[in-house]
Design a protein that fits this description.
This protein is of the alpha+beta class. It has 17 helices and 21 strands. The protein has an 8-stranded mixed β-sheet, covered by helices on one side. It has a 6-stranded mixed β-sheet with strand order 1-20-21-19-18-17. A 4-stranded antiparallel β-sheet has the order 10-11-16-13, with no helix packed on it.
């Protein structure tokens, strides 16, 4: 998930000079070497590039034994209801017999918005129990199933989708700046399970089996901050039925859109070896597509945002092209970017094969103030703008627009990078968010360097990584350990963004300087190749760097300790006051803005309110 430097827009404003349905898919072709693979698995494997199937099997074992989800959902956007059935087929793995199964429903983090019923295990009715946390349901497996044995679990699903928070299409509509300074100031899931008039986001509605630890206990679920969940790679066959005029979007190869007799349309998708299965339903959307090295890249967007939606396609295609050159091929045949009304400071959300980018970013360049709708303190900002006059906004409009366009491109690149970290190279997003978020953030910075040159990358490094940390410190936030579970960030979104998205990625910048480009990029490619479809550890990338540069092994470990486990942010990134932040932007979009004393005093008075305090 990408947390935007929304504070920068605030400073800029205050510091002025005194879809159409897819065509039916052809019948599934025979897969070379598939042998006795079941037809439903063959359908799923169309989602993998042919040359990637052997690599997936090497990492996961026989692809026939990978978990298979069969999903049938119907959606009524008007009533905000979703219902259907989900069946999961598993092969018991591990050293011990399976005595219990868990299903996770991330929409239930705060309240029970999705319910399960009618559970059957291997055809026999079983009882669903509440798990050790609200998102989990437990099923006892009696008799236990020995390793290698098969399990088939079927449940009925029913959910009511909450209305999106007021101002959900603005960056900060559900809380203070960047979602508020404390947990509870914004949406727990950034709108992942919510509905507006034209978008129903159903992320998490498909119950999935969570990974378990060495004791057989499920990994921790969402904590109201950061990402929601990640799962073992699995195949998915899904049908999504929606009313006429609506379209369905999900991960996987589209298998067609078939009209029903009642006028509704049934969309079908087949996905292979994916760690999650997001679902969105939209009305009035358009789409554009391009092809990158055998990957169909799609951009889906509201009709009014068509120009931006096409630029998003360009940015996604460019980022994927650069990443495939240096990180290796994306294994999937389809990748989608869907515009969604994200809230609470999120610019995007990542899922394997599909990412969302916030509507606020699509509309920010045209109307910068729309990003601030619903934010505490907005009335005072409006008074400030009125007092200084409309000329102030017009004079900085071009600079603000250029910065927001860079932010859009950087955000898209960040979400594309998540296809590798942790979509392909798995890591625990709840316990170890610093692993995938820091790599996705730094990979987005690398993309800017490859696409626009070192000077542009350096500008973005300061603007997107250094300044959020400095702003957080200036407003009273405390430096601290970046490497901790999402639930341990008591300072909420602002602290999480400053340490996980700001400070932590700069470990990779320091490591690159230490070992040099040749060793750094050799290690980065080795990291992806070694752990694709597998789970990586917190130290795994450092270990690959040490292999590429053995003489620096000890120093690399010390760097990871310094940047991720200790508190040297002020020393490494520098502290700044409000004027210092603006002056630091010297050659950037604002050209080195000088705050007058009255504006600076007003902003300093407003900061506690703007932060949701």
């Amino acid at each position: 998930m990408r947390t935007l430097p929304g504070w920068w827009l605030l400073c800029a404003l205050a510091a002025g000079p005194v879809a159409a349905a897819a065509p039916p898919a052809p019948a599934a072709p025979a897969i070379p070497g598939a042998g006795s693979v079941a037809p439903e698995v063959q359908l799923c494997l169309q989602h993998l590039k042919p040359e990637e199937r052997d690599r997936a099997a090497k990492a996961l074992g026989p692809l026939e034994s990978v978990p298979l989800y069969r999903v049938q959902l119907e959606v009524d956007p008007k009533e905000r209801r979703v219902w259907g059935k989900v069946q999961v087929r598993l092969v018991a793995k591990g050293p011990r017999p399976v005595t219990e199964l868990y299903l996770r429903l991330t929409p239930n983090t705060r309240s029970r918005q999705v319910t399960l019923s009618g559970a059957k295990l291997n055809g026999k009715a079983v009882t669903l129990e509440l798990g050790p946390e609200p998102t989990l349901q437990r099923i006892a497996v009696d008799p236990p199933v020995a390793p290698g044995g098969a399990l088939s679990l079927e449940v009925s699903v029913k959910g009511t989708v909450p209305k999106a928070a007021p101002g959900a299409e603005s960056l900060m509509g559900s809380g203070g700046l960047l979602g508020g300074s404390a947990r509870g100031g914004g949406a727990d899931d950034h709108g992942a399970f919510s509905a507006t008039a034209d978008v129903v986001s159903l992320v998490g509605v498909v119950p999935q089996v969570p990974p378990v630890d060495d004791r057989g206990q499920p990994w921790a679920g969402p904590q109201g901050l950061g990402d929601l969940a990640l799962y073992e790679p699995a195949h998915v066959l899904a049908t999504l039925t929606v009313p006429p005029g609506w379209s369905a979007h999900a991960t996987g190869t589209p298998m067609g859109a078939v009209p029903e007799r009642d006028g509704r349309v049934r969309y079908s998708f087949a996905a292979a070896a994916v760690r999650d299965f997001p679902v969105l339903v939209t009305r009035g959307y358009q789409s554009a597509a391009a092809t990158v090295n055998g990957v169909t890249v799609e951009s889906h967007f509201a009709a009014q945002d068509a120009a931006v939606g096409k630029r998003v396609l360009k940015y996604a295609s460019q980022a994927l092209t650069e990443f495939e050159k240096r990180l290796g091929p994306l294994p999937y045949t389809h990748f989608r970017v869907v515009q969604a009304p994200l809230s609470g400071g999120a610019g995007g959300m990542e899922f394997p094969g599909l990412v969302t980018v916030g509507t606020s970013l699509y509309r920010a360049k045209q109307d910068p103030l729309s990003m601030l709708v619903g934010m505490p303190g907005m009335e005072a900002i409006q008074e400030l703008l009125d007092a200084q006059g409309a000329a102030m906004l017009s004079q900085v409009g071009a600079q603000v627009g250029a910065s927001l366009e860079r932010t859009l491109e950087f955000t898209v690149a960040h979400e594309v990078a998540h296809q590798y970290f942790a979509g392909l190279v798995g890591s625990d997003p709840i316990r170890d968010p610093v692993v995938d978020e820091s790599l996705a953030q730094y990979a987005a910075l690398l993309y800017m360097e490859w696409a626009h040159g070192p000077e542009a990358a350096e500008s973005l490094r300061n603007e997107a990584l250094v300044m959020p940390y400095q702003f957080y410190r200036m407003t009273g936030g405390r430096d601290g350990r970046a490497d901790r579970p999402t639930g341990d960030f008591d300072g909420g979104e602002l602290e999480y963004g400053a340490l996980v998205y700001g400070k932590a990625p700069l470990l990779h910048h320091a490591s690159r300087k230490l070992v040099g480009d040749s060793a750094f990029f050799k290690a980065l490619r080795a990291y992806v190749d070694t752990y694709r479809f597998r789970w990586a550890c917190k130290a795994c990338f450092t270990q690959e760097l040490a292999k590429a540069s053995p003489a620096n092994a000890k120093a690399l470990t010390q760097l990871r300790t310094r940047w991720w486990e200790e508190s040297h942010g002020d020393e490494d990134l520098g502290a700044a006051d409000l004027q210092g932040l603006m002056e630091a932007m010297g050659g950037g979009a604002m050209g080195g803005v000088k705050l007058d004393a009255q504006t600076q005093e007003l902003l300093e008075q407003l900061l506690p309110q703007l932060m949701g305090q």
